[in-house]
Amino acid sequence: MSKETEEFERFCETMASSEPEALRGLIDGWEVLECRGNDEHRVLLIRNDQGEKRILKQFSHRQNARMRAEREALNEARVDGIPKLFDYAEDDRFVYLVREYVEGVNLEEWIGEHGPMSVNEAARIGEQLAAVLAQLHMRQIIHRDVKPQNVIMTPEHRVVLIDFDISRKYTQGEEYDTEYLGTRNIAPPEQFGYGQTDARTDLYSLGVLLLYLVTGSYELREMGKLPRPLRRVVRRCTHFAPERRYQTAAQVRHRLRAVENRPKRLAFFGALAALCAVGVAAGVLWLGAGARTYPSLTVLPAEAVVTFREPTVEAYVRAKLGKGADEPLRYGEISDISEIYLYGTVADGQSHSLKYIGNKVYADDQLIHNGTVDDLTDLLMFPKLRVLRLFRQPVSDVDALAALTRLEELSLDESPNVTDISAVSQLEWLRTLDISDTSVGDISALAGCPRLRQIDLERIPCENYSVLSRYHYLELLNVNAASPEAVMAAVSGKMIDYLWLDHSGLTDIGPFLRAEGVEQLHAKNNEIRSLEGIDALTMLEYVDVAYNPVEDLSPVLSLPRLKALRIDRSMTAAWDAIKDRATFRIEWQE
Amino acid sequence: MKTQELVSALLRTADFDGLCERHADEFMDENLIGYLLTLMERHGASKREMMEQADLEKGYAYQILRGVRKPNRDKLLCIALGLGCDLQETQTLLKLGGRNELYSRVRRDAAIVFCLQRHYSVQRCQTFLASRHFDTLRDEP
Question: Which chain A residues touch B69 with a CB distance below 8 Å?
Answer without folding.
Answer: 472
